[in-house]
Each structure stands twice: as C-alpha cells, then as structure tokens.
Amino acid sequence: MKKLVSLLLVFLMIGSLFACAPQTETTTEPAEATEAAETTQEAEATEAAEPAEPQQGVTDTEVLIANSIAVSGAYAPVGIPFQYGMEAYFKMVNDNGGIAGRTINYIHTDDEFSPEKGIAAFEKFFYDDKVFAIVGHFGTPVVSATLDEMKELGIPTVYYATGIGQLYQDKAEGNDRSSFPIQPIYTTEGQVMVAYAKGYFNATTVGVVYTNDDAGKSLFEGIQVAAEKYGVTIVAESIQAGATDASAQVAKVKDCDMVIAAMIQATFPVLIKEMEKQDIMKPVLTTYVNVSKTLTDANAEHVQKLMKTEGAGIYGLGWVDTTDLTTEEFVNFYKYMPEVGATESDMNAFAMTGWIAGSVFCQGLERCGEDLTWANFIDAMESAPIQNPFGGSVDFSDGQRKGTTEMNLSKMDDTAASGWSLIIPIKSIDDILAGVN
After folding, report:
1. pLDDT score of 14 more than 70
2. DSSP string for residues in 144-187
3. Is pTM beyond 0.90 here?
4. Which of 203, 311, 328, 356 has the maximal Cβ count within 10 Å?
5. Cβ(191)–Cβ(429) under 8 Å?
6. Could you tell me which CATH class the domain 62-184+322-405 is placed in?
C-alpha cells in the first residue's frame, strides 16, 4: 500500500583533462582557452541565476493544505463539526485577505476512521495534490498508521485529533520537528494530574487506577515521571479497558489521599460507582476526555454522595476556556460557523478544536510572511509559544513536542449547564505547584 519514495540525486560533474605533453607544446590556443573559460563562466552564472523551485503547495496567491476526517460512520458526530471549525477559521482568514497575500485552500476527504483509507488519503495529498501541510490530522488509528511516513517525508503536520503517546517528544530533531501536536497528549496530561494532586489537593499519596490500553498506559507513564519529580507516592492498579467490575482496584487504593482515574469514558463510570458503593469518599481526578455533560447526565444519580460530599468530589482537567463567550474569538467562531454550513448543533467543543487547529497553523504562516518554506515554517513554529485562541498556549521551542501543558480544573456538577463547574482556570504546571488554593 505504501508508496516507495524515490529521490533522484543529480550531480553535475565537471572534469578537467590535462595532456601530458612536453612543456614547449601548447594543447589549446590562448584565444580558444579564453573563449572556453568565458563559456564556462556564463554557464555557471546562468545556473546560479535560475530560481529555486517553489515550495510544494505554495504559490504567490495560495497555500494548499489537506486532511482526511471521518465524516461518516460512528465518528461522524466528531469529525463533521471538527471539519466545520477548520473551514470556518480559514473562511475568516480568506475573507480578510489571507496571509502575506495568500489565501488558504483547504481540501479534505472522508477516511471513515479507517487506517487503510487514511494512508491512501495522505499519499494522494502528498504525491498527487502536493500539499504544503497536513492540518488537523484526525483520529488515533489514522494517525498511528501514517505518522512514521509523514515524519520520514518531513511534511509539516499541525494538530492531531488524538492524544496518543507516539506524539510525545522532549527533544524532536531532524524530520521529527515537522510534527506539531496541540491538544493534550496523555503523557503530558498525566504530569499535569500529579501537579494538581500536589498543588491543589495537597495529596502526598495518590492511588492510580489505569486502563491497560494506550490512553491509560500513556497517562500512567506521565504520572510516574511527575510523581518521582515532585515527591508524590503512587499506589497503582491496572484494569482492563471496558471492565465492568473495579472492586479489587478500588480496595487497593482506598487508603490514599485521592484517586487518579487514568482511563477514558467507558471504564470511568465503573470506577466512580464502585468508590461510592464501597463508601470511599475521596477526590477523584480524571482526564479531559471524560469532562462532558453526557457523562455527567448518565452517571449523576449513581454517584451523588461521591460528587457532593465535602472533601470528596469528581474532578477533571480541561484545555479550553469557555467561561466567557463574548470574547472576539468566540464572536468570530459563532459568526463564521453558519457561513460554512454548520448548524447550531455543530457549534460544539469538537468544532472549537477544529477552529484551534486552523488558528495555530495560521499563526505559523503569519510568522513566515512571504518566505514560506517547510524549513521556515518549522523554525517559525518553534520561535515563540503559540496561542490557543480559546485559552492558554503551547510551546514547541527546543524541540518540545508535548502538546498543551497548561490545563484547568473542573468539578462534576449536575446542577451546572455543562455538567461541570470550573474550579481553577488554565494554568501551567509551575503555577499549579506554586499554590492555587
């Protein structure tokens, strides 16, 4: 399936032939020698004056970018608004004249969340369409299947709609620098969890129940790193992803100061219901993936005591600030979404992440100005922190590829419109540990 990339290296070899004739003999007349030298110089000057080939996907008036998204099938409710969010942002940019005289031409296709279709889509974008960048690379299976080839080719890739540990790097070098994860990577989020455990909950012993899938293990990897760094004792128990019984795991962590639930959606309710069943009233902290009204509505009646007992509670992290919808960014978001065909139901958190993907990419373009090449774009993205239009920033300097490291803290609240109440606004790990009580 994978195409073989052939790079044809053309070397211009200029050889000089010297005759082994006696010194008294001349093999080339002076006039001929002068003429030959002038001809060679003219050829070299002509070669030097030839303009370099333009960067793939870039013209004087346009930048061509692409992605494949699941806009049909089970993941369409996520993919459709994500696509609308990107389209809306690029429409806003193009309506205002583009960037450095170039408009954004965004093409996309439906990969149905299939790795095979995702590979085919990427190879078409790269080899046939010759796009400048992939923006908004969508979904764990597709990202996992294409990441190595994309890095090998060195094409800039901005924003991954997944938090898999494969994206995490402390010090990216070479073509690895072309990768720019924005949303939280689970390995990074695990470190933020420990920072909140120590800086907000004042916990010295933390129970960690983690699923044995990529999400759980990546979260736990980050938890281990931060626990050692910040002097927090960990009591860890693994659980099968999708398990229906967490009684043994809960019994093992009941004496800890708090519990970190390093797991996503389906397994999380099993854990918190079991804690309430065993009457273990401790704070529970979980990933941003679980911070949704749907999850609160589905479980609130089963965890009332845990949710509302003083000194306990169910907490989650977040990386988008939606407390003030009157900011210029939100005003533009709600203005341009309908203009690309989005309905009111499409204007959700998934659409906001698409808007973020577009914003981050365009910030890199603005830093490059007219001189837009892969190398300049990568340097520009690393030159200073990139702002998240909905709060916080992400730093790619010195090869950091950790995704967002600044996150907020919310508490499950079945009386709140969103199902969660904001407790702490977006903060960096250093600010969290400085004390946020």
Report:
1. no
2. HHHHHHHHHHT--EEEEE---GGG-BSS--GGGGGEE--SPPHH
3. no
4. 356
5. yes
6. alpha beta
